[in-house]
Amino acid sequence: MHLVWTVGLLAATAAMGGCAVESYAAGLEAQIRKTPAGPALYVNCKPMTPSVLFVNLHDVADPVHTPLQLGEVEAAGRHGVTIVSLTIGTPWPAEGETPDYAGAADQWIEMALKANPGALLIPRILTTAPSDAWFAAHPDERMLYDDGARGLPSVHSQAWRRDAALHVAALVRHLEARFGDHILAYHPSGQHTGEWFYDRMWEGRTASFEPPAAPAFRAFLQARYRGDAALRRAWGDPAATLETAMPPGKAEQTRADQGAFRDPAGQRQAIDFDEFRNTEMADTVALLCRAIKQAAPRKLTVAFYGYHFELAPAQAGMSTSGHLALGRLLRSPDVDILCSPVSYWDRGIGGAGYFMAPIDSIQLHGKLWLVEDDTRTHLSPPDAGYERPVDFRQTRGVLARNFAHVATRGTAVWWMDLPGQGWFAGDEMWQYLGTLDRAYTEALAKRGPYRPEVAVVIDERSPLFGAPNDRVNMPLLYLFRAQWYRIGAPTGIYLLEDLLSGKTPPAKLTIILNAFRLTRRRSGGGIEARGRGTERLLRSPRATGRHAARAGSEGGRPPLQRAGRRRHGRRRMGGAPCHRVGHAHDPAAAGGGLPRRRHGRGPPPCDDALVRDAERRYQAAAAVAGGAVRSGRLSGVALHRRDPYPAYPENPA
Predict the structure, then answer these.
(1) What pTM was computed for the model?
(2) Are 452 and 491 in contact (CB under 8 A)?
(3) Helix/strand/coil percent split, the chain, to 5
(4) 20 to 30 A Cα–Cα from 442, which one of 257, 275, 316, 455?
(5) Per residue in 470-529, pLDDT tens?
(6) What is the C-alpha separation between 244 and 584, in angstroms, rounded?
(7) pLDDT tens digits for range 11-58
(8) How deeply is 616 buried, as exposed, middle or buried, from its count of CB atoms within 10 A (0-12, 13-18, 19+)?
(9) How many Cβ atoms from other residues are within 10 Å of residue 489's Cβ?
(10) How far apart (Å, rounded) are the C-alpha atoms in residues 162 and 166?
């Protein structure tokens, strides 16, 4: 009878989240739980403040940097921040060889635990750097770029996917056996800077010309169209078959037949190919997280993804990024935490410290968002860049601003010494960060759900139909943040699919940024329905619905008019948002150009017709917002204009 009761208790507590199971099973267990206030971190069934130190440990024998790095781990733990993220290697042994876990991973973890024996660790595992022997054995499985160069392993390669999953799982099982009680989560990384966007994207280069891409693309088309007849209708090609379909060539990928847009009838092959490439990247992330979960089911997974705003300046279009399948990744049960750095633009004193992703949608789906705060503090070299603070007072101000974003949303944060040079070294720094951590612990215990008054909505499907350049998405998604981050009211950032499905909370004002491509089947009247429950719903007349298709169709020419041309025979507009060069209030004028993301570009100069069009839209938005304020439906919002094109950033004086 006692045995039956014990088994019943275990089953019941497991169903409630496993809180009593720890009495019967050894080892650390970490969870992201859905709570009324949003996703929350639990460790061994107790809530834990998700504040983290990230430090790169490079060389055990380095007499200069290693003491600094370990000193950060020790000081962080002494001031209450016990979670530590660090980069480790991934052995890729040849068949029959024994993997070198000691040299690749164990020594770094042992160093961190020596500095803080109570630390909980998040190892970051690089997966796209296999051994030279693997590359030699798989020469055709490397990315092939449009300039003929070879690169990292192809995300379309079944051989690389198989081996990466096997080696990552083996590494995780080894670490669980040796250090399992100190490991909170695992962070698989890969592609450009480990952040899962296509390598060389910032150079304007595209890959997926390698041999594994073609069969993977055909598998994608088979799942999409099911039969040759549907493929032929979509592509407008009576000879197309699922068995012989090929990726489009470089010339087709770089064409845009409708000005700022691709023709959805005549260029469906290129549109499908870009969707395929984004899907493949998200599926790769999910695959590696699944391998980790199978090896360590009680631990969490972390991944970079969802940089919709930050990747908008991609020279060949953000559809080449690989980050336009966030909705797909949010449906994966194997992904627990998603993350990105603070935006690299407008991050200094007086800046806004933007999110790169629609983080409120991510948290609505029960995934915890993690902000990588890699601020170049006053302890970094003077030439570190990115609006580096000049002294500790400015450093505190930037860190506090970034932390305010974290605290209002209930996200996680890691303070990142990116090169391991002591950016977050010393008691003065950790006394301050420890104060933030303690304040956050108190706030998390009391917080309720985030209820923004303004909803900003992004569509991750519409960029697939855009021209392969940055002229539309950079102003709308990258630069326009300077306005709506300073709107004076709490703002939520969501995916369009969540707005249409009713997941987003009600807002007084909804701004839809880039819904160029909507079908009736996709929207189902959802925008209008959500608008009726909202005080005001604003859409640019040359944005939302501009590329609408016939009911229930993803193909066919738009019934209204060709994109880039106004109705009723009015003057053709080039379809390219722009920047007034040398404007009196241009904060970058003295520096000789636009603010730049690490490898981004500025938009082209304006033509006067576009400026007049922007002026009319600004006046319309001002009238709507002003009416809402006067009627009492919306308070505390002001539109302030210094440039006739309102999507250009304005830093406060």
Answers:
(1) 0.83
(2) yes
(3) 40, 15, 45
(4) 455
(5) 999 999 999 999 999 999 999 999 999 999 999 999 999 999 999 998 866 565 555 655
(6) 57
(7) 334 444 556 444 334 589 999 999 999 999 999 999 999 999 999 987
(8) exposed
(9) 15
(10) 6
